[in-house]
Automatic annotation (TrEMBL):
InterPro entries: Ribosomal_eL30-like_sf, YlxR, YlxR-like_sf, YlxR_dom. Residues 21-96 form the YlxR domain. Coiled coil: none annotated. NCBIfam families: PRK09190.1. SUPFAM superfamilies: L30e-like, YlxR-like. Residues 1-20 are annotated as: Disordered. This is YlxR domain-containing protein. It holds the Pfam family YlxR. It comes from the Bacteria.
């Protein structure tokens, strides 16, 4: 569902404190975990701050592709920055690539900490032992194989391809990854949900 973009407003945004932020395009207030932060670079270029750590006044946008496109076409960044800005032509691609990289990094951290396993057998063992907090499956994996794997009562995301998951786990490909409950699982799920707002569903083999 597309949310109508808000008109220009002189209303001041609240300070960057607390768990809620206001979208510069729609003026919705949402949890910051469902949004993207942008800052102005040295030459007034718009820079996505996916980790929410760069200095400067943040400009927050709902983590959805349609909202980004509307913000670009209607000058929301210029209004929020109170002046001219430089918009990279590949801004959407930078966001998508950056979110995928964050998911890969988080999965790598989980693997090295012993909090994630890949593969059918290891994953099924974790499911049966109650050690699973999140199921990560390949977006291009077989729907039938993914359904057979189980974990129906678990949160599940499919942000990366089998080849991308395989790189994280030192394999040619990986369709099933199980992550233990905890902060890393929560962070992976959050980033996957932000990415899902920008990427259309990929047709999958049954």
């Amino acid at each position: 569902m597309t949310t109508a973009l808000a008109d220009a407003t002189d209303e001041e945004d609240p300070p960057e404190s607390g768990p809620i932020r206001r979208c510069i395009a729609t003026r919705e207030t949402l949890p910051k975990e469902r949004m993207l932060r942008f800052v102005l670079g040295p030459s007034r270029e718009i820079v996505p701050d996916l980790a929410n750590k760069l200095p400067g006044r943040g400009m927050w946008l709902s983590a959805r592709g349609d909202v980004l496109e509307g913000a670009l076409s209607r000058g929301a960044f210029m209004r929020a920055a109170r002046g001219p800005v430089t918009l990279p032509s590949d801004l959407r691609a930078r966001i998508e690539d950056g979110l995928r990289a964050r998911i890969r990094d988080l999965l790598g951290l989980a693997r090295r900490a012993g909090q994630a396993v890949s593969g059918w057998q290891a994953g099924r063992e974790w499911l049966q032992a109650g050690r699973a907090g999140l199921l990560v499956q390949a977006v291009d994996g077989s729907l039938a194989e993914r359904a057979r794997f189980g974990g129906r009562n678990l949160p599940a995301v499919a942000p990366l391809t089998a080849a991308e998951l395989g790189v994280v786990f030192g394999r040619d490909h990986a369709v099933h990854v199980v992550v233990a409950p905890g902060r890393l699982a929560d962070a992976i799920r959050q980033e996957a949900e932000r990415l899902a707002g920008f990427t259309p569903a990929v047709p999958q083999v049954s």
